[in-house]
């Protein structure tokens, strides 16, 4: 029985933080349990009380960052306006930017993008299906395109040091979704 839940939670968090510091510097396959425990100040046995391996650590971090359906705000699509969806993604991204900027970056986890998209697709499908009768295959492809674009542009924006104010980025994404890329390029 765990008699010291605060100590246990802190130990686990210290191991996660040590892993994260290493993960920010190098790819996961180059990180060892020994490095994590040395950095956190624990022995290897302590690590294995909480995690099976380094991939278990990243998996637990990712699971904590991916919103469940009940954590996402309900979306209603009024007059085909997708602005609320963009705002939701921006808030989610900013809240977790410490992790998202690395996980979605060049040395991050390619599977994380899919996990993030798959967690938000159901709520978007529900919101749009209430208003439109769309071919399910085409609709899934449209959502994949939109989510890839939103995640990609926000990742790039963070990596570039937020070169535009957040409101301007949201406006740009909204314009691209509403009017297309070519309308923006032809100005």
Q: What is the end-to-end distance?
A: 66 Å
Indicate the low-confidence ranges by residue numbers: 76-80
Rg result? 20 Å
The dominant shape is: elongated
The structural domain count equals 2
Taken in chain order, the helices and strands follow as: HHHHHHHHHH
What does this structure look like?
Residues 76-80 have low confidence and may be disordered. It is built from 10 helices and no strands. It has 2 domains: 5-61, Homeodomain-like (Arc Repressor Mutant, subunit A), CATH 1.10.10; 66-185. The protein is 70% helix and 0% strand. It is elongated and about 60 Å long. It is an all-alpha fold and 187 residues long. Helix 5 (83-95) runs antiparallel to helix 9 and helix 7 packs across helix 8. It has helices at residues 5-25, 33-40, 44-50, 54-65, 83-95, 97-103, 110-129, 136-159, 166-179, 181-185.
What is the fold's blueprint, element by element?
Layout: H1 5-25, H2 33-40, H3 44-50, H4 54-65, H5 83-95, H6 97-103, H7 110-129, H8 136-159, H9 166-179, H10 181-185
InterPro entries: Homeodomain-like_sf, HTH-type_Tx_Regulator, HTH_TetR, TetR_C_Firmicutes
Pfam families: TetR_C_8, TetR_N
GO molecular function: DNA binding
Briefly say what this structure is.
This protein has 187 residues and is mainly alpha-helical.
């Amino acid at each position: 029985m765990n008699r010291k839940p605060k100590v246990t939670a802190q130990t686990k968090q210290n191991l996660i933080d040590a892993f994260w510091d290493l993960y920010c510097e190098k790819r996961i396959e180059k990180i060892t349990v020994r490095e994590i425990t040395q950095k956190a100040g624990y022995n290897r046995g302590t690590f294995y009380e909480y995690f099976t391996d380094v991939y278990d650590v990243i998996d637990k971090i990712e699971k904590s960052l991916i919103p469940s359906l009940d954590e996402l705000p309900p979306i209603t699509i009024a007059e085909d306006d997708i602005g609320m969806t963009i705002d939701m993604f921006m808030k989610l991204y900013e809240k977790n930017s410490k992790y998202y900027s690395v996980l979605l970056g060049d040395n991050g986890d390619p599977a994380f993008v899919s996990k993030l998209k798959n967690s938000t697709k159901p709520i978007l499908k529900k919101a749009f299906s209430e208003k439109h009768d769309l071919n399910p295959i085409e609709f899934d492809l449209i959502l994949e395109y939109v989510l890839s674009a939103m995640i990609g542009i926000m990742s790039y924006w963070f990596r570039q040091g937020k070169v535009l104010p957040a409101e301007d980025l949201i406006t740009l994404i909204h314009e691209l979704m509403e009017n297309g890329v070519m309308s923006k390029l032809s100005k």
